[in-house]
Specification:
The complex is a heterodimer of chains A (309) and B (272). Chain A has helices at 44-51, 73-77, 95-106, 110-123, 139-151, 169-184, 196-202, 220-227, 242-251, 272-282, 297-308; strands at 4-15, 18-29, 33-37, 59-64, 67-68, 80-83, 157-161, 188-193, 205-210, 213-218, 230-236, 257-259, 262-267, 287-293. By secondary structure, chain A is of the alpha/beta class. Chain A has two domains: 4-225, Rossmann fold, CATH 3.40.50; 228-295, YebC, transcriptional regulation domain (Alpha-Beta Plaits), CATH 3.30.70. In chain A, the strands form three sheets. Chain A has a six-stranded mixed sheet with strand order 6-7-8-3-9-10, sandwiched between helices. A four-stranded antiparallel sheet of chain A has the order 2-1-4-5. The radius of gyration of chain A is 24 Å and the shape is elongated. Chain B has one domain (19-267). Chain B is 74% helix and 0% strand. Chain B is elongated. Classes of the chains: A alpha/beta (309), B mainly alpha (272).
């Protein structure tokens, strides 16, 4: 199926003189993940707010699950789940009561609501803490409860606004697994993040926002190709070896830049690590440390803004 | 933490519920947190209790001053005013409660649900009405058992005064809900409330007969709507000729209508 579950065209939103969204368009097919990448203030959260009916756009059109976010806000809301940067749960209520509350507001009977709450709490590993006030939860638990809360109504589209910001690595990984399972179940996901690795792992396609504009979109591989190369960094044991190593790498067709006892050179694939090792070996040198660095969001930004300028 | 494939998608999807159910569920939520933390009820009783104690002692001789209704004990004169005052404080608390709700992340969640936002406000108002009723009943129990409150109107008159205080507090509560929905700041709300309430209470017939006030203050008291609310409650409790009850009810309904309209407009504005 190629039906679009999220579609936005030429969306504008300004706060006073500041243009938060300046003609943004996205299209997300059913059952896929769109990663919305950008630094703070790029317009990610504003776009999420427009798509989740929280903010009306100044101009442009947006629809979610086939419903217009302005004219059919109610239909949109009954089909989406939203997990924002801050846990949207009632701190005074227990995890169980939070989920029951939402199920009841969605139209579940008390019995259905309790069953759904219990089910979700178990899925998210919160069964033991179900009856405790959510204000006593850890950050990771709260985030999981928040995600559970946004799943109560079996949403077709889920918006995750920086879901792992501020989480420890284990919780981060756990959340990624949940998202992957949701997608496997056919849910459509829009995920905003500042982390390239997160988008890399979860997103089928990535849209990069900068200052309210889409500066790039495509798959992770396409973006990286656009950004250019990864870099390999060779750290040598002695500073005296740097000139010889630099020469050896140049002979191998690389363009190293020296910094202290380290040499950094752009590479096209991880296979070139072998080229580096061989080149050093030929002149009788050995790297104390060899590291391959993926392009970061900063690289994406720097490259793309250079292209735009 | 493994997500079963079936768990998340196969159950029936709910598409929302009617306004009455939304209000009932949300009112239940507020009341539950009230029961879970009854300290608020008792803390908010402290101020009126202190006033009741101080005034009933300090101003007891007021009953001997000219202009004071003859044959009425001061505690019986004072208590209806304390009821109205407590209901007003409670109305301010409704506004502060709404701001607390807006700080609580759950309100952001409500906005993403297919519910009418007005239900959140109505639920707030209803649960505050329940809380105020509990407070006023507790105050009456104190007044009867400790201070010997026994007005001529008897139980019926007292209950009528209580009901009137509740209606006035409920109407005013909508004004504070409106202010809260626009201000969205608890400290500012406290200040606004304090500035509005203190002069209103004292430049009125609440603690002394208007006739006993200095001329300029009397002029203020005579246009102060609170004077009329207190007089109406007092006339019910003291079994005097009933004055201004209809006026107080109509004014409260008007406050509720205006406040409600403004509150929903303010509340609908995006959170940030």
């Amino acid at each position: 199926m190629t039906d679009l579950m999220i579609e936005a065209t030429d969306v504008h939103k300004a706060f006073g003189a500041q243009k938060a969204l300046d003609g943004v368009g996205v299209a997300v097919p059913r059952g896929t993940v769109l990663g919305l990448l950008g630094h703070n203030g790029a317009g990610k959260t504003t776009l999420v707010n427009v798509l989740t009916t929280m903010l009306p756009p100044d101009r442009g059109q947006a629809s979610v699950a086939g419903f217009d976010v302005v004219a059919q806000a109610h239909q949109v809301r009954s089909r989406i789940g939203l997990t924002g940067q801050f846990a949207a749960v009632d701190e005074g209520l227990s995890g169980h009561d939070n989920l029951v509350l939402i199920a009841r507001l969605l139209g579940a009977s008390p019995k259905e609501a309790r069953a759904r709450a219990t089910e979700l709490l178990d899925v998210f590993g919160l069964g033991d803490a179900a009856r405790r006030a959510s204000r006593t939860y850890s950050g990771g638990m709260r985030r999981r409860l928040d995600l559970a809360a946004s799943l109560v109504g079996h949403p077709e589209v889920i918006f995750l606004d920086e879901p792992t910001t501020g989480l420890d690595p284990a919780s981060r990984l756990g959340l990624w697994e949940i998202v992957e399972n949701l997608v496997a179940d056919g849910t459509t996901v829009l995920l905003t993040t500042q982390y390239l690795d997160e988008a890399d792992r979860l997103a089928d396609s990535i849209t990069v926002l900068s200052a309210g504009r889409v500066v790039a979109s495509g798959t992770s591989a396409e973006l990286k190709a656009q950004v250019g190369r990864r870099t390999v960094t060779v750290t040598l044991g002695r500073a005296d070896d740097v000139p010889a190593a630099s020469l050896a790498l140049e002979r191998a067709g690389l363009h190293p830049v020296a910094a202290g006892v380290a040499l950094t050179a752009p590479v096209t694939s991880s296979r070139e690590l072998a080229v580096v090792v061989r080149a050093l070996d030929e002149v009788g040198l050995e790297a104390a440390e060899l590291a391959l660095a993926e392009p970061t969001l900063d690289d994406v930004y720097l490259t793309l803004s250079r292209h735009a300028a | 933490m493994t997500t079963g494939v079936t768990t998340l998608t196969t159950a029936p999807r709910w598409r929302g519920t009617d306004f009455a159910t939304q209000v009932a569920v949300l009112t239940g939520r507020s009341l539950r947190s009230l029961v879970g933390d009854p300290r608020m009820i008792f803390l908010s009783l402290l101020q009126p209790l202190v006033m009741l104690t101080l005034f009933s002692q300090i101003f007891a001789s007021m009953a001997n001053t000219p202009g004071f209704p003859s044959g009425v004990r001061y505690i019986d004169y004072l208590m209806p005013a304390i009821l109205v005052n407590t209901a007003m404080q409670s109305a301010l608390q409704a506004g502060i409660g709404l701001i607390t709700d807006m700080k609580n992340g759950v309100l952001a969640r409500f906005r993403s649900l297919p519910i009418r936002l007005g239900s959140v406000l109505v639920a707030r108002s209803l649960s505050d009405l329940v809380r105020t009723t509990a407070q006023l009943v507790l105050m009456l129990l104190f007044a009867v058992t400790i201070f010997g409150f026994a007005p001529a109107g008897g139980v019926l008159g007292t209950l009528a005064a209580l009901a009137l205080a509740l209606v006035v507090g409920w109407g005013l509560g909508w004004i504070f809900l409106a202010i809260a929905a626009w201000l969205r700041n608890a400290e500012m709300m406290q200040t606004v409330g304090f500035l509005a309430m203190f002069p209103l209470m004292f430049a009125s017939s609440a603690y002394v007969p208007v006739a006993g006030l200095p001329a300029w203050l009397r002029a203020v008291a005579e246009v102060n709507p609170l004077t009329y609310a207190v007089n109406a409650a007092r006339s019910l409790a003291l079994a005097q000729p009933v004055t201004g009850v209809v006026g107080a009810l109509v004014a409260s309904a008007a406050l509720a209508a205006v406040g409600g309209a403004l509150a929903i407009r303010g509340f609908r504005r995006p959170l940030s």
